[in-house]
Specification:
Blueprint (H helix, E strand, L loop, with lengths): L1 E2 L4 E5 L11 E5 L3 E6 L2 E7 L8 H14 L10 H43 L4 H18 L3 E2 L1 H8 L6 H10 L6 E3 L2 E5 L3 E2 L4 E2 L1 H9 L6 H9 L17 H12 L6
Parallel strand pairs: 2-5
Antiparallel strand pairs: 1-2, 3-4, 4-5, 6-8, 7-8, 9-10
Helix pairs in contact: 1-2, 4-5, 6-8
Length: about 260
C-alpha cells in the first residue's frame, strides 16, 4: 500500500526494510526506516503484527464492502467499488500515520535536517563551511546562556508587564541591552540584568554603545560569556562587581591591531 505524501512512503506488515544500494539511511527504528535516495526521501513504515493496529483498516474495508457490494452474485467488482477501496486505503494510511507516527516523524525530520547540514559541511565551499560554523557557534552560545523572555525582563527591570512586547521594544530601540531571537521569540541574556538595582548594568550599556560595527551581538555575547584572564570568571559575570575593568578589557579587545 502506498500512501501519498510529500515523502515517498510504503506501508508494510512486519519489520521495515533497511535502505540498500545507493540510498543513504539516516533514521531507523522498529517501525520506521528512512533513507535519502537521489534527492528524494524514502520512508518505509510498518503497522506491525498487533491486531489492534488493523482495526482502522478492517472498519474501512467493511464500510467499503457494504457500499460497493455487487448486486448480482458473481458480478465483477465495479469501478466505483475499486475507487472506494482505494480511498479507504488512503484514509487508513493517513489516519494511521497521524495517530501512530506523528512524534516519530518529528524525530525523523530532525535527523534529516542534521544529515543535510553534515552534507553541506563536508563540501568544498569554504564560505559555506564558515557560515555553518558560525551558525553552530551561535546555537551553542544561546543554548548555554540563561535567558529571560519579555515578561520576565519587564519584571526584572521593574517595568509594567501589561504589554511586555511594547515595553521591551522601547528598551531595545535605545540600544542599551542585548536581545536575541530563539524559536521566534525575544530572549534577553540574564547576565545583563542588575537584579538588585532593577536595571541593565550601566557597564553593559556602555559596551554596547562602544561596540564596533563589525561586532555582532553574538560576538559580544561570546566575549562576555567565555573565561577571561582579567577575571576569575567571565566578563559578563563581572559586570556588577568590576564594571570599569570589564569596559577596559573590552576596549583592549576591540583595539585595532598595529602591524610594525
Amino acid at each position: 500500500m502506498v500512501a501519498a505524501s510529500t515523502l515517498d512512503t510504503q506501508a508494510r506488515v512486519g519489520t521495515p526494510r533497511r535502505a540498500r544500494g545507493k540510498k543513504r539511511a539516516f533514521y531507523a527504528s522498529p517501525r520506521i526506516a528512512a533513507a535519502a535516495d537521489n534527492g528524494h526521501v524514502v520512508v518505509d513504515f510498518s503497522i506491525g503484527q498487533d491486531p489492534d493496529n488493523l482495526v482502522v483498516l478492517r472498519e474501512a474495508l467493511a464500510l467499503s464492502a457494504s457500499e460497493a457490494a455487487p448486486k448480482a452474485s458473481g458480478a465483477k467488482l465495479p469501478a466505483a467499488a475499486v475507487k472506494l477501496l482505494v480511498t479507504a486505503f488512503e484514509n487508513v494510511a493517513t489516519r494511521y500515520l497521524q495517530d501512530k507516527f506523528s512524534t516519530e516523524f518529528e524525530k525523523l525530520i530532525s535527523e534529516y535536517r542534521l544529515m543535510l547540514r553534515e552534507n553541506l559541511a563536508t563540501g568544498d565551499d569554504a564560505q559555506l563551511k564558515a557560515a555553518l560554523n558560525r551558525a553552530r557557534l551561535q546555537e551553542r552560545i544561546l543554548a548555554s546562556t540563561q535567558m529571560a523572555d519579555q515578561a520576565q525582563a519587564c519584571e526584572l527591570l521593574g517595568l509594567s508587564g501589561a504589554n511586555p512586547s511594547a515595553t521591551m521594544k522601547r528598551k531595545e530601540e535605545k540600544n542599551e541591552l542585548l536581545r536575541f531571537t530563539i524559536d521566534g521569540r525575544a530572549a534577553y541574556p540574564l547576565l545583563q540584568f542588575d537584579v538588585e538595582g532593577r536595571r541593565i548594568y550601566p557597564a553593559l550599556s556602555e559596551i554596547i554603545a562602544r561596540k564596533p560595527d563589525h561586532w555582532t551581538n553574538f560576538r559580544l555575547l561570546h566575549w562576555l560569556t567565555r573565561p577571561h584572564l582579567d577575571f576569575e570568571d567571565s566578563p559578563g559575570a563581572s559586570l556588577g562587581s568590576e564594571p570599569e575593568a570589564v569596559i577596559a578589557a573590552f576596549e583592549r579587545e576591540i583595539e585595532p591591531e598595529v602591524h610594525g
